[in-house]
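Narrative of activities, Objective 1.

The group set out to show that a structural description can be obtained from nothing but a protein's sequence at a throughput compatible with the screening campaign. Below is one input-output pair from the validation batch, recorded exactly as produced.
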Amino acid sequence: MATVVVIGVDLGSSGVRAVAVDRGGQVRAWTRQRFDGADSWPPGRADPEAWLAGLGRALGAVGGGFDIAAVGVGGQSPTTVPMSHEMAVTCQHPAGNGQARIGQHLAQRDFLEAELGREIVPAQSWDWALRRLGAGDVQGLWSDEGPIPGYGRPVGVGVVIGHADGSLGLAAGTPLVSGSNDAYMSFWAGGLGTPGRGHDPGGRTGGVGVAVAAADRPPEVVGFHGIVAGVEVVGGPVNGHGELLEWWSALSGLSVADLLERAEAVPPGAGGVLVLPYHDGERAPRWEPRLRGEIHGLSFETGAAEVARAVLEGAAYGLRHICEGLEASGIALEVLGTGGSPALSRLWGRIKASVLEVPVEAPERPDQLSARGCALAAGAAVGWWDGIGAADMDSWPLPPMHRIDPEPDPAYRDAYRRFIEAGDAAAARLTKG
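Output recorded for this entry:
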């Protein structure tokens, strides 16, 4: 008898991750498939047909030999995909940059309609994938998220929204389950259900969410529903994280692995080099899309290693900037969970722990978290585990975590002060202009 699994799919802009999980929570199969041609797409654009081919490869890689109970799909956001299959507009496109989620989606739709000269049927990335597999005209939303006008019938996360029609090798009749934003799915799989716990979903962007008892959330701090009843999440996303390291890899001609190895030998403070990670503007906490990246403290002694270290540290300073704003409102971060490919680097984990001055926890494969969250949604939909909003986290097979304790350093504290001052100065220049 074949092993029964649920499959979780995380649809990214350049690749798709998929994981097969059995009822006991064991990962039975895992894959990452890059999309063909992704390196040649214009910035902020993506070819849905390449996404579809990659999705088919991913389902084949993790589904072979198993009895599939359900498939859950989540992905990047805000991204708009036309159901007529023209090029999608991803979250990295300037259309709607700086607006809230709904406004950005609508701006993306308007951009596509102006480009194509006609109305389109728009979808969020994961809804598009589920529709192509046989689901109905729906939009999967996290609890209490507002629906996007014209993007389909709103449904919650972890709901069976249709059945596979046999496309992409997925057996006809397989239940299809709604997911949500990859960050939210990472929050679920990372166990963001205890007040004081934070989570950085990592990836090419990143950010931090901190769990807080709903009754204790100050009214001036915006929150959204957490994974456990009575717990909300506050914080915000940033624009620059893993993509910064990819940028420096392309510019320096060194691989990411080489840069991480060289950065390991550079002491805290990066030899005085400081990076403002605002290459594509910034979201939380500055919310200023016109900002651009800056490098301070260069000298003739500066090498690729120092800039690589400063990139890692700059991303951590951005997280601390968000957390200090929360702390001013009485919300303290006590431990930070991490996910996404950046969390594969123990060095980056140590830097985050030491800059934030709290322990950091990461699973052995943090790059599986968003896909694993989609698998949790699929399992919840067929009754294996509780859905979001449960009374506690006891039913969910969450991955074990390894812990990195902080090593506070005066060099980090001084560089963080410079980070805030330089960012304030950059924002002031925009205001004067």
